[in-house]
């Protein structure tokens, strides 16, 4: 066998064979490159989705204000209107006292003062107490509203939020529903606290599913 440098003709022939094979493999190489690109895009998409889910899940337990903040305002509401202890809704008289205390008669004030264990409250002191309770109740509902807004926008994982807060939200919505309806009537705006309202409506068990909760 002759050894040594390849002749120009042999070199040209070898390059021709190489490039010919490369051209023949072109579609296959393009297909492989395409598949690799699709796999890369899929992995990136999966990472983005996983990161988003993790953030939403994490937010379900961290977005809500500190439990101590809730405990403080709930205790302040409980001292007067018995918000935490009560199982029923605020009565029409209680709602009117919170929103329009100046319109109550002396008889109504005495009735509520007895129910709220305020003793022999003077009108001015009674109105001051009502205004303070009204302000705290609005703040409390606004806190729940902001969390429900985060749920409905997908910022918070709804399934995790429901497991953690379902009973609290449903029971507290029952207590304040007459108050919410009165606010909507007074302001002629049915969108007030609608996120809280809509979340509870979704979470309320139907007669068919009630026993599984």
Task: Estimate what percentage of residues fall within beta strands.
Answer: under 5%
Low-pLDDT stretches: 207-213
What is the number of strand segments? 0
User: How many separate domains make up the residues?
Assistant: 2
End-to-end separation: 87 Å
Structural class: mainly alpha
**Count of runs of 4 or more consecutive helical residues:** 7
Can you put this structure into words, describing what you see?
By secondary structure, this protein is mainly α. The protein folds into two domains: 9-62; 65-212, no CATH class. It is 74% helix and 0% strand. The longest helix has 55 residues, at 8-62.
Summarize the structure.
The protein is an all-alpha fold. The protein has seven helices and no strands.
Topology record:
Elements: H1 8-62, H2 67-81, H3 92-99, H4 106-115, H5 123-152, H6 158-187, H7 194-203
Helix pairs in contact: 1-6, 2-5, 3-6, 5-6, 5-7, 6-7
Task: Pick out its properties.
disordered C terminus; 2 domains; mainly alpha; 7 helices
């Amino acid at each position: 066998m002759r050894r040594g440098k390849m002749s120009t003709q042999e070199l040209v022939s070898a390059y021709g064979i190489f490039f010919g094979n490369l051209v023949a493999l072109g579609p296959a190489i393009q297909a492989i490159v395409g598949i690799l690109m699709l796999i890369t895009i899929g992995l990136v998409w999966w990472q983005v989705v996983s990161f988003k889910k993790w953030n939403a899940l994490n937010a379900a337990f961290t977005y809500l204000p500190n439990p101590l903040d809730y405990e403080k305002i709930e205790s302040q509401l409980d001292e007067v209107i018995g918000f935490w202890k009560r199982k029923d809704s605020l009565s029409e008289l209680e709602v009117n006292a919170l929103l329009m205390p100046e319109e109550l008669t002396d008889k109504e004030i005495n009735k509520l003062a007895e129910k709220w264990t305020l003793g022999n409250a003077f009108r001015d002191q009674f109105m001051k107490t009502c205004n303070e309770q009204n302000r705290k109740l609005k703040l409390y509902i606004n806190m729940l509203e902001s969390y429900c807004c985060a749920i409905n926008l997908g910022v918070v994982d709804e399934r995790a939020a429901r497991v953690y807060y379902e009973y609290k939200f449903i029971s507290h919505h029952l207590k304040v529903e007459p108050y919410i309806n009165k606010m909507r009537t007074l302001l002629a705006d049915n969108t007030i606290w609608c996120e809280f309202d809509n979340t509870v409506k979704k979470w309320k068990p139907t007669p068919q599913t009630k026993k599984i909760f």
